[in-house]
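for the writeup, i need someone to sanity check this before i put it in the appendix. the sequnce is what the collaborator sent (i think, or maybe the updated version? ugh). structure was predicted straight from it, no edits. if anything looks off just tell me and ill rerun, i have time this weekend
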Amino acid sequence: MSSHSTKTALKFQGKLVVEADLICETGLHIGAGKGSLEIGGADNPVVKDAFGRPYVPGSSLRGRLRSLVEHAAGINPAEMVYLSKRKGQEVRIHQSDRPDDEICVLFGRNPNRMERMSGDAIDGVPATPARLAVYDAPLDPDSITAQMRENLDDELTEVKSENAVDRITSQANPRTLERVPAGARFKARLVVDILCDEDKELPGLVAESLRMMEDDSLGGGGSRGNGRVRISSVRVCWRGKAYYGEGAAEAELLAGSDSAGLLALVKGPAFAEKLS
């Protein structure tokens, strides 16, 4: 639980900037969606930018982190709401009106009327600003080495072939999946807004979610071996209000570390004092 309450006053104090390398330990697939198929192309392509380079959308990374912290906190049906009720494609997320709900404080609240899984619908919940912003993570082209390119199906990606086999007839249903290869490196950037003293607890939740993701997966097909990632080269800096209004220097709190170092920093007893 957070120490936020209904009496908590919000006033901008600064931003905690976390930059890190997101390194693929196995092939990564974040689907692009496709209205038509190309001859010889993969059934499921990865999302690419305007230059044809794969990237990790900020929405995908943010959604994965939120999912992990929600599961860690426990799934309470009374605090689960529907984003979509389309049959077979239901989407449910955590949302409550408790002021001390750190998940809703970190990721924000939807002020619209939302139907709960059980109980009355949430109606008229005041919107709260999301403290966490997660940006698109571009691919570092240098991470795709010349040796890797010799074995790739495309310039920057590989195509993984899979089969779904009928348990009765043993008939195979082949499919292909485009993936960013193991060894690829993305440049991730996360920013936590600190709007009150109570917000200084929230970076701990971000660090926990990144640690959990290393032993989980990112993107699609995680249960089939896709999407194992590692956090590396973590840099954390604090940019207080004076940084923006007076041109003061930022304070570097961590450099060249990993997820364990990030967790130790934000869980340390003196961390809150550094955000001043």
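The chain is about 20% helix and 25% strand. Residues 82 and 92 are 4 Å apart (CA to CA).
thx in advance!!
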